[in-house]
Design goal:
Elements: H1 5-15, H2 18-25, H3 32-43, E1 45-46, E2 61-63, E3 66-68, E4 72-74, H4 88-98, E5 102-104, H5 112-121, E6 128-132, H6 138-150, E7 156-159, H7 169-174, H8 210-219, E8 224-227, H9 232-240, E9 245-248, H10 262-273, E10 279-282, H11 288-296, E11 301-304, H12 306-337, E12 351-352
Parallel strand pairs: 4-11, 5-6, 6-7, 7-8, 8-9, 9-10, 10-11
Antiparallel strand pairs: 1-12, 2-3
Helix pairs in contact: 1-12, 4-5, 4-12, 9-10, 11-12
Bound molecules: flavin mononucleotide and 2-Ketohexanoic acid.
Length: 377
């Protein structure tokens, strides 16, 4: 039985090729930001209200006019077929069954159109979003946007934190640079004549700028979210350039190492956008309490990356379903314990930065009985 998100990782690691496990777990350079994301949630405290709950709690959200049953999105992760033969089809079916929004990675190993067909065939109609790396060749970018639009994606998540590919040193040591034979980046196949869907077709370009965002704004009417804006000044610029939302993300610590945890940046980013666009946060979300903390501070929703890959590796579609159920239960339980009858009751006063510290006092006498001596940390 998997009781926690962490259990999925342990179970997946027992089965996975360690090279792929490293690809999932790893981050850039010293992985300081990878650790910071999770640690930031642990440092914040919850301060619950009592005697004001309700028998049932409302967990649904609405983003850009679309309903989802949970404030938890599946952040875009590449290469699902590395860990499960059905790949993104399995993830998408699980997401749809749970009523959760999945952001399909541009580097998916099942084409976004096929993902959409599979979900429709299952009779579920939950919005899907598409993650895009703007390509310096704008015709290619336009073709990708068309593929996503034709597949019924209802928003574009444009990743802007990757002017160059993050330095995943685990991958370098392991010599993991390409997909194994038989797997392709299916969204990239035949964008130009004869293109085979090679990972290296994805251009990470340091020459992208705000004019590219304006150009994209002009070719699509889909809502555009920028993923990877960390500086409040860039958040202001994003709003000025007509962006519809932000996915506050440090790419799970996989791009620039030593940037702050996303949770720590949330208040500054929210202040910068002044409520004009929704802010979704990802990075280190592993518990219902994490979801509650991010929402109480003002995030509209959160995203999860690695947990989905672990769950997919551990149990395919069923694994991802169980993961989403588990997070749903934890979220519901946390709301109840906070005296909240729905997400709307999550207000910043429920979250505190600890003010307590070790009480200064005389050093404990060596050998003294610590049980009764009032000994402090
Ligand atoms: C294995 C893996 C693949 C990823 N692939 C992509 C991707 O293709 N595009 C993207 O924008 N972000 C990608 N990300 C970043 C995630 O979207 C997300 O920001 C991050 O995983 C969130 O942190 P978490 O893993 O702590 O939940 C990837 C992350 C992982 C772990
Ligand atoms: C070219 C694929 C990029 C995947 C990615 O964004 C990541 O592994 O973090």
């Amino acid at each position: 039985m998997r009781y926690t998100v962490h259990d999925f990782e342990i179970a997946a690691r027992a089965e996975l090729d360690p090279v792929y496990a490293d690809f999932i777990a790893g981050g850039a350079r010293d992985e300081i930001t990878v650790r910071a994301n999770e640690a930031a949630f642990g440092r914040l405290q919850l301060l619950p209200r009592v005697l004001r709950g309700s028998a049932e709690r409302e967990l649904g959200i609405s983003l850009f006019g679309h309903r989802a049953s949970l404030p938890i999105l599946i952040s875009p992760t590449a290469f699902h077929k590395l860990v499960d033969p059905e790949g993104e089809l399995a993830t998408a079916r699980a997401a749809a069954a749970a009523g959760v929004i999945m952001i399909v990675s541009m580097a998916s190993t099942v084409a976004v159109g096929q993902v959409a067909d599979a979900v429709r065939a299952a009779g579920d109609d939950v919005p899907r979003w598409f993650q895009l790396y703007i390509q310096p060749d704008l015709e290619i970018t336009e073709a990708l946007v068309r593929r996503a639009t034709d597949a019924g994606c209802s928003a574009l998540v444009v990743t802007v934190d990757s002017p160059v590919l993050g330095a995943g040193e685990r991958n370098r040591r392991n010599g993991f640079h390409d997909l194994p034979p038989g797997l392709r980046c299916e969204n990239l196949v035949d964008l130009r004549d004869g293109e085979r869907g090679h990972v290296r077709q994805i251009a990470m370009s340091p020459e992208l700028n705000w004019e590219h965002v304006d150009w994209l704004r002009g070719i699509t009417s889909l809502p555009i979210l920028l993923k990877g804006v960390l500086h409040p000044e860039d958040a202001r610029l994003a709003v000025r350039h007509g962006v519809d939302g932000l996915l506050l993300s440090n790419h799970g610590g996989r791009q620039l190492d030593t940037v702050p945890a996303t949770l720590e940046l949330l208040p500054e980013i929210l202040a910068a956008v002044e409520g004009r666009v929704p802010v979704v946060l990802d990075g280190g979300v592993r518990r219902g309490t994490d979801v509650v903390k991010a929402l109480a501070l003002g995030a509209s929703a959160v995203g999860i990356g690695r947990p989905v890959m672990w769950a997919l590796a551990e149990g395919g579609e069923k694994g991802v379903r169980r993961l989403l159920e588990l997070l749903r239960d934890e979220l519901d339980d946390t709301l109840a314990l906070c005296g909240a009858s729905g997400l709307a009751d999550l207000t910043p006063d429920l979250v505190r930065v600890p003010t307590w510290g070790p009480v200064p006092g005389p050093a404990p006498t060596p050998g003294a009985d610590r049980r009764f001596g009032g000994v402090v940390a």
